[in-house]
Amino acid sequence: ADWVFIPEVPPDDNWREHLCSKVQRNRERGQRVSIIMVAEGALDRQNNPITCDIVKDLMVDRLHLDTRVTVLGHVQRGGRPSAFDRILGIRMGAEAVLALMDAERNPDLP
After folding, report:
1. Residue burial 15-49, b: 16+ Cβ < 10 Å; e: rest
2. Nearest Cα to 52, choosing from 65, 64, 63, 36?
3. Which has the closest alpha carbon to 7: 53, 38, 33, 30?
4. Residue 9's CB: how many other CB atoms inside 10 A?
5. Is 5 strand, coil or helix?
6. Alpha-carbon distance values, 23 to 16, 34, 60, 94, 95 (Å)
7. Model pLDDT for residues 43-74, shown as the tens digit of each residue
8. Is residue 83 a contact partner of residue 66, using CB atoms and an 8 Å limit?
9. pLDDT by residue (tens digit) across 79-103?
């Protein structure tokens, strides 16, 4: 993640400016995607809540970026796997086996 908000470590008072400048610098370096994590219960030093919507609005209003919010719990509870999910799992397993076989032949591979 490029930035993480957690309740245990409140960000500096000017976190909005720091976050925007970091995301902007990353974009100038060619990074097209930024991941900003907001834990439940995240607060600033004045005990104001920091929510996904606040961060999203900040990215849209100040940096004019297309911003999406994903709630991880919803991703984890995705329901039954589709045919695509099953095929992807098979392909990933096959690639893992091939990587292991390559590693046996060439022990210098990471």
Report:
1. bbeebbeebeeeeeeeeeebebebeeebebeeeee
2. 36
3. 38
4. 9
5. strand
6. 11, 7, 12, 37, 34
7. 999 999 999 999 999 999 999 999 999 887 65
8. no
9. 788 898 889 889 999 998 888 888 7
Burial (Cβ within 10 Å: 0-12, 13-18, ≥19) of residue 67: middle
Total length of the chain = 110
* Longest CA pairwise span in the chain (Å): 58
Q: Which residue has the tokens 């911003």?
A: 67
